[in-house]
Design goal:
Protein name: BREX-1 system phosphatase PglZ type B
Oligomer: single chain
Strand order of the largest sheet: 9-21-14-8-13-12
Radius of gyration: 31 Å
Helix content: 25-40%
Structural class: alpha/beta
Number of strands: 28
């Protein structure tokens, strides 16, 4: 569940397209992703991208071998009517539409007739666009923090050079382009000639490269290869180049590094290296360059993982830990980037799971054991989710899932049995372990359905990364751990509810009228008590917020029941949606957000162990709980119902389930179901809102106007807005109370230069910047 910064422009586009395909909880995945490009500026890069994205198709003249065709052909791709060229059913096709804007498709009846078959794909699919809804232009993507985040001069010459160099920019390491302002000369240098790039392109696609070369270009290329790399392309051929690249040394190390920066752009290099002839394996300086070695290691690791399935739990944990240490180096090899090391990649979370699963949870009481789980025990659950969440469709996924079960199930079951023993100890009243939720002035209670403790910890991390202050504690859910029983306890309306004479639906009733405590009736009870009830999209704080607020979001539990073990793929989108909702509430004025939930859940691929329970002993039977009939005496543990302790709830021992093939369940007694998170989220330091609203020039003096809610801000004029050392003014000026500041450029030689007006706070943090041309009115 971790993300890394993209290395190249290609990686950044790939990551952004994947982000555009992410769907909120409960929403079907899009049927297609539309990439509109009104100017057609992305066009030259598309063939390169198609090497990396086999699901990328282009609107244009019919050429299926190039994955290009007219609108009707694209529709056939989306509907999978052409299986020989369509992507797999679990892969969303990306449709690049040159010279088509998003506005064209949104025009409805005014949309050009030839494009109208694509209109409805906006609604069944998704569109790749900026946050403001505009198309992603090349310039916007390269400069936006949501894209690549480069500092690029705004003049026309630079813009033209940038577009000319787009294809050459694609494989360039982004790290080397950051930290400075890029101008026309920087982009032009990419086109002057790059021997390393040309050599990799030739190795990857010899026929294609030579077919594009005229005699002069080919002669120059051969001369450079001989002078700089000691290679004669005619005499040595691809075999000689592959041998040299395998052994390295001199300029060949630079070639290898460039290949590792963007290996998917040079697919033929992997093929060539498989044919390379090592002179002396023992003397080879870098064995990571041998794809064959990586394949051998992966095959051996597969066999080791299969063998671990038959080991006792402790030995299996030790074996996986040792394998992780042995193979972790390969996760840094280039073959891992190319998807050729799936088992080595899977070992990272499996290693964490193996270590965590060997640590038993302690505590002499139920409260103590719950506290131990809240401190570190949940990390075992998170490692299991992480291991399952990284799986992709493929032959290795089944084996890794079996390893997760081998490591995780015994730890889960032992922990549950010990917790059940403590919950059943003499004198323990499970109802007294449960704390209810109350309304607070100026605070909004956010109910997140099924927020398990480990997922709550992920939420805390993401909120803190956004700059919020977060305190996380734990509560113990009521018995049984199902929504009907537990949600009223997690709401300020719990005092309006009471038990009844049966527990068949596990729900209490509203005390005043005896009606079942449904979600709508709970909200009505809260509203009568003065709590503001906010709909899904509503965030504003009521004029009078004495009774606080209440809102609900999230569908983890709903998704779990429908997806079972596949829920792991929806956890990230769910957490992101929670972060966005909390941020919106705090922005709307609530002083703090109290995140609560009703229960956790168990998740085990392959299903929880089946436990038999005779139906004549119970009135209601769910997967992890059952309402016992009258004086029946089932031979499994029973516990008092939270809302009426006279009534008994049967719960299977350990992590058993009353229903077969259950991968996701709750309602029983386990740490994962009972120990639930509670987060209090507050804004960090008061946010400073500041915007440059005007820039005007008189000669070499610049007048700046600013709108802000803070005092003491400063304005500067820099050649590179990120670097204070690039300032060209005689002195940085503080914004006056009237929101204005005047800057004088220190040297006339800067007249006509591209620069940026920079607005910063007292710590030097840049709050806003806008481009300008020195001496020209803007």
């Amino acid at each position: 569940m971790s993300e890394t910064a993209p290395r190249t422009l290609i990686d950044a586009i790939d990551a952004s397209l994947k982000q555009a395909l992410r769907t909120p909880d409960g929403v079907a995945p899009p049927t297609a992703l539309l990439w509109t490009d009104a100017d057609g500026h992305w066009g030259p890069l598309i063939p390169t991208l198609q090497k990396v994205l086999p699901q990328l198709y282009v609107l244009g003249a019919y050429a299926p071998e190039d994955r290009r065709g007219p609108v009707i052909w694209l529709r056939c791709i989306v509907e999978r009517s052409l299986p020989e060229v369509s992507p797999p059913h679990d892969v969303v096709p990306i449709l690049y539409l040159p010279k088509v804007s998003r506005q064209d498709l949104r025009a409805g009846g005014d949309c050009p007739a030839e494009l109208q078959p694509l209109i409805e794909l906006q609604y069944r699919g998704a569109v790749w666009h900026q946050r403001n809804g505009r198309d992603w232009t090349v310039e916007a993507f390269l400069t936006s923090e949501d894209g690549v985040g480069l500092d690029i001069a705004k003049d026309n010459r630079t813009r033209d050079a940038m577009l000319r160099a787009l294809v050459l920019l694609a494989p360039e390491p982004l790290a080397g382009l950051r930290g400075r302002r890029l101008e026309a000369d920087d982009f032009d240098r990419l086109a002057i000639g790059d021997p390393v790039r040309d050599l990799l392109t030739w190795i990857s696609d010899k026929d294609g490269f030579e077919g594009r070369c005229d005699p002069t270009h080919w002669a120059t290329f051969k001369d450079i290869c001989w002078r700089e790399f000691g290679l004669d392309p005619d005499e040595d051929g691809i075999q000689g180049a592959a041998d040299a690249l395998l052994h390295g040394g001199g300029k060949w190390d630079e070639v290898w590094k460039r290949f590792c920066d963007a290996p998917r752009l040079y697919p033929g290099v992997s093929t060539a290296l498989r044919q390379a002839r090592p002179r002396d394996l023992l003397g080879l300086a870098d064995h990571s360059r041998r794809p064959g070695l990586n394949e051998e290691q992966e095959d051996r690791l597969r066999k080791e993982l299969e063998a671990a399935l038959a080991l006792p739990h402790g030995q299996a944990c030790d074996r996986i830990t040792a394998l992780d240490a042995e193979h972790k180096e390969r996760r840094g090899w280039v073959w891992a980037q190319l998807g050729e090391s799936p088992y080595a990649i899977a070992l990272e979370p499996l290693g964490k799971l193996a270590k965590a699963a060997k640590v038993p949870l302690g505590g002499a009481t139920a409260e103590a054991m719950a506290a131990d789980y809240a401190v570190h025990g949940w990390q075992c659950d998170r490692a299991a989710l992480d291991a399952l969440g990284r799986l992709k469709q493929g032959g290795e996924s089944g084996l890794v899932t079996k390893v997760v079960r081998t490591l995780y199930e015994p730890w889960l079951d032992r922990s549950a049995r010990r917790f059940q023993e403590l919950m059943s100890a003499p004198g323990v009243d499970s109802r007294k372990l449960t704390a209810s939720v109350s309304a607070e002035r100026d605070a909004c209670v956010l109910f997140a359905d099924g927020l398990r403790f480990d997922v709550g910890a992920i939420l805390q991390e993401r909120l803190e990364a956004r700059g919020f202050r977060v305190r996380m504690s734990h509560r113990i859910a009521p018995i049984p751990t199902v929504t009907a029983t537990a949600k009223p306890v997690a709401s300020p309306a719990h005092g309006s509810c009471s038990g009844k004479a049966d527990a068949e639906d596990f729900a209490p009733v509203i005390t005043t009228n005896g009606q079942p405590a449904t979600a709508s009736r709970l909200r009505d009870a809260m509203a009568r008590a003065g709590t503001a009830i906010l709909d899904d999209e509503q965030a504003s704080m009521a004029v009078s917020s004495e009774g606080g607020g209440w809102t609900e979001t999230g569908k983890l539990d709903t998704l779990g029941h429908s997806l079972n073990a596949l829920l792991v793929r929806q956890i990230d989108p769910e957490v992101d949606a929670l972060v966005d909702r909390i941020s919106a509430l705090l922005t709307a004025g609530w002083s703090r957000i109290r995140v609560v939930t009703d229960h956790g859940w168990l998740l085990l691929p392959g299903g929880l162990p089946k436990v038999e329970l005779s139906p004549h002993l119970v009135a209601t039977k769910w997967s992890r709980c059952a309402a016992v009939k009258g004086g029946s005496t089932p031979d499994i543990p029973t516990y008092p119902w939270y809302w009426n302790p006279i009534l008994r709830i049967a719960s299977p021992p350990g992590i058993g389930a009353f229903m077969a093939n259950t991968e996701y369940a709750h309602g029983g007694i386990s740490l994962q179901e009972c120990v639930i998170p509670e987060l209090v989220v507050e804004r960090g330091e008061a946010a400073v809102a500041a915007t440059i609203t005007g820039i005007s020039w008189r000669g070499m003096r610049c007048r700046v106007t600013v709108e802000s809610n803070a005092a003491g801000l400063q304005v500067d004029l820099r050649l590179n807005w990120k670097q204070a050392a690039s300032s060209i003014v005689a002195a940085v000026k503080e914004v006056r109370p009237n929101g204005e500041a005047s800057l004088a450029v220190a040297d006339d030689k800067h007249e006509g230069a591209a620069a940026s007006v920079v607005l910063s706070d007292t710590s030097g943090r840049v709050l806003d910047y806008k481009p300008t041309t020195v001496g020209e009115d803007a």
